[in-house]
Amino acid sequence: MSEFDVTLTFDNGPEPEVTPFVLDVLRRHDIQATFFVLGEKLVDGTRKPLLRRARDEGHWVGNHTFSHVPLGTTPDRKTAEFEIGRTQELIGDAAHENRLFRPTGGDGTLGPSLLSAAAANYLKEGGYSVVLWNAIPEDWLYPDGWVDTAVEQCVSQEHAAVVLHDLPTGAMNNLERFIWAIRMRGGRFVQAFPESCLPLNRGIERTSLTPYVSDPEFLSTKEC
Questions:
Q1: 204-205 and 200-201 as β-strands: parallel, antiparallel, unpaired?
Q2: Which residue, among 191, 129, 187, 203, has the nearest Cα to 161 in the 3D structure?
Q3: What is the largest CA-CA distance in the chain?
Q4: Beta-bridge partners for 188
Q5: What are the CA-CA distances from residue 164 to residues 70, 136, 167, 174 (Å)?
Q6: How far is Cα 31 from Cα 189, in angstroms, rounded to an integer?
Q7: What pLDDT score was predicted for residue 222?
Q8: What average pLDDT does range 68-81 have in this prediction?
Q9: Which of 6, 25, 159, 169 would staple 194 via disulfide (CB 3.0–4.6 Å)?
Q10: Per the database record, which ranges form the NodB homology domain (predicted)?
Q11: 11 is known as an active-site residue
């Protein structure tokens, strides 16, 4: 049985109906994950205690835009500043020190819809880290069927960064089953991201952002 690593990430929360349950499961299994949150869900302040709980229990909190817009479809600078900057403000001191940012892929596809040049330049200037993924079992579409897909995606590579969603779809009722399935196959849960999923780290390009930018001719070439 070959060993492999799995990094768990949860997008589009926090949700009072689901996020505490997810945190309970992770604590029970001694797993640290990353929660990429939406700014619009933090505006009224009632969900911020969920971020503090996640942080206090060793999880990382990252930025997933304000309104879940694919930034590659909105090339203006003001949109990038609002979607990224406003969300970072709302996350506040719960944010990871590396300013983790996950772009929105719509259907989970990695490609030029993820970022505009304006957004990429803003992220570089602000010292953000862009976190991508290499396993997306579509739990939002298949709340009862995503586990087998996720396991297949994970065992097929040395280090999988899995996108799940702490949303009220019922999918997270199967989170514990997924954890057991991974461990039975020799998988190890780690918090760090695969190198291939971190093209931008603290504002410095480690690999080219060009494949994820809709208008790469306007990308800044200046190191930040």
A1: antiparallel
A2: 191
A3: 50
A4: 5
A5: 18, 7, 9, 11
A6: 7
A7: 65
A8: 95
A9: 159
A10: 4-190
A11: yes
Contacts with 146 (C-beta within 8 Å, 6 or more apart), sequence order: 137, 138, 139, 164, 171, 174, 178
165 is catalytic: yes
Average pLDDT over the chain reads: 96
Instruction: Centre a 10 Å sphere on the Cβ of residue 137 and count the other Cβ atoms it contains.
Output: 23
Q: Residue 223 — very low, low, confident or very high, per pLDDT cuts 50/70/90?
A: low
**pLDDT > 90 in the chain, percent:** 95
Among 59, 64, 96, 165, which one carries the catalytic annotation? 165
Q: Give pLDDT, residue 2.
A: 77
- CATH for 4-218, options being 3.30.1050.10, 1.10.760.10, 3.10.290.10, 3.20.20.370: 3.20.20.370
Distance separating alpha carbons of residues 51 and 95, to the nearest angstrom: 9
Q: Where are the domains of the chain?
A: 4-218
1-14: average pLDDT: 93
**pLDDT attached to residue 106:** 76
* Angle subtended at Cα 56 by Cα 52 and Cα 60, rounded to the nearest 5 degrees: 80
Residue 61's φ and ψ, nearest 5 degrees, are -120, 125
Direct distance between the N- and C-terminal alpha carbons of the chain, in angstroms, rounded to an integer: 43
Instruction: Flag the least confident range among 1-10, 55-64, 85-94, 116-125.
Output: 1-10
Round to whole Å and give the CA distance between 9 and 141: 17
Q: Which of 11, 96, 139, 166 is catalytic?
A: 11
Q: Which residue(s) pair with 129 in the sheet? A: 100
